[in-house]
Specification:
Blueprint (H helix, E strand, L loop, with lengths): L1 H18 L2 H4 L7 E3 L4 E10 L1 H10 L3 E2 L5 H14 L4 E7 L8 E2 L26 E5 L4 E4 L5 E8 L17 E3 L4 E10 L1 H10 L3 E2 L5 H18 L8 E7 L7 E2 L26 E5 L4 E4 L5 E8 L2 H11 L6 E2 L2
Parallel strand pairs: 1-17, 12-16
Antiparallel strand pairs: 1-2, 2-8, 3-8, 4-5, 4-6, 6-7, 9-10, 10-16, 11-16, 12-13, 12-14, 14-15
Length: 329
């Protein structure tokens, strides 16, 4: 008990500098740049996505799909865009998907209340399928198809920044476990294994890897509790995606490239693994035993976060003489 209490006190003391001063340090995530003139963080995603995909990815990162609040923000962001990226168009968090012809931001503001500089003759809903908005490097807007892929930006305002003190991460949904010294989040919305992998990565975490029987027991309890809470809202499968696979034909490995037998926990269920070439991804059953499954199986999943990950990022960031993530216009 004394050791657990000491670990808790040390954890809080070590994180207090970061958790209490994130706004002062103007730090959100290492992959986001802070623009002083807008007091917001931005990340340019160069891999094109559809509008729904872009919106979901920004949300997973704890941000939102960017749109300019006004001419001032548009000017600042376009200057940053021109200085750092070659792309000529980006998706904006504006659409008329709810009511045709009524363009609104993702948080419900009419476009007339924010940035509203269309090209002449736009929006024109060409072909009846242009319900989302893109912005060109000259600042003009055009309506386009929501299923067309474009680069995009995610945004997080400094004012909205909150911090999970125990997990040292800007995501309040992660729960710290004192005994294991790690944080976990149960995702009840079913995804296939690769989607789950990407979702954890977007949250600066990874699909959970079991290292001990105690951790297996914790994840079983976590899944059981979450399943009971979510039973009326979503259909959960009998397994939970975990962070191991055989997708590379190199034997079963944890997501960090470590052989499964070297993780400390490789307790397979009866007759598992049994799927051959069709079941290359890993999961856990309700009793904590490991199963191989088809990677396309949709299931709930658990993400794991190491508490000191962002601490080292902050040390790196504020140890540099030139703060490359702070962009001043």
């Amino acid at each position: 008990m004394f050791l657990k209490t000491l670990l808790f006190v040390l954890t809080i003391n070590c994180l207090s500098e970061y958790s209490c001063a994130q706004r002062n340090k103007k730090f959100f995530r290492k992959d986001y740049s802070f623009l002083e003139d807008t007091e917001s963080f931005y990340k340019f995603h160069t891999l094109p996505k559809t509008w729904p995909e872009a919106k979901k990815l920004c949300a997973l990162e704890g941000a939102s799909l960017f749109y300019p609040q006004n001419d001032h923000e548009a000017h600042i962001v376009i200057s940053y865009w021109n200085a750092t990226q070659p792309h000529h168009a980006i998706l904006l968090g504006i659409s008329d998907l709810i009511v045709k012809g009524v363009f609104e931001t993702i948080d419900g503001y009419p476009i007339s209340d924010v940035y509203n500089r269309w090209y002449r003759g736009e929006p024109n809903d060409a072909g009846g399928v242009e319900d989302c908005v893109v912005m060109m490097k000259d600042g003009r807007l055009n309506d386009d198809g929501c299923n067309k892929k474009f680069p995009f930006m995610c945004k997080k305002t400094l004012q909205s920044l909150e911090w999970n003190q125990q997990c040292n991460i800007p995501n309040l949904d992660y729960v710290f476990n004192l005994e294991l010294g790690r944080c976990y989040k149960f995702h009840s919305a079913p995804k296939n294994w690769t989607e789950a992998y990407a979702a954890c990565s977007a949250e600066q975490s990874y699909l959970a890897v079991i290292n001990t029987q105690a951790e297996a027991d914790l994840l079983v309890r976590t899944a059981e509790a979450a399943s009971q809470r979510q039973a009326r809202r979503t259909e959960l499968t009998g397994v939970v995606h975990l962070g191991f696979h055989n997708r590379l034909d190199e034997g079963w490995q944890a997501v960090g490239g470590i052989a499964l037998e070297d993780t400390g926990y490789a307790v397979w269920g009866s007759n598992q693994p049994d799927g051959g070439s069709q079941e290359r991804c890993g999961a856990m059953s309700s009793n904590g035993l490991l199963h191989d499954i088809n990677c396309n199986t949709r299931a709930s999943f658990i993400c794991e976060h190491e508490v000191d990950t962002l601490s080292s990022q902050l040390d790196d960031r504020f140890g540099e003489l030139a703060l490359t993530n702070v962009v001043k216009q």
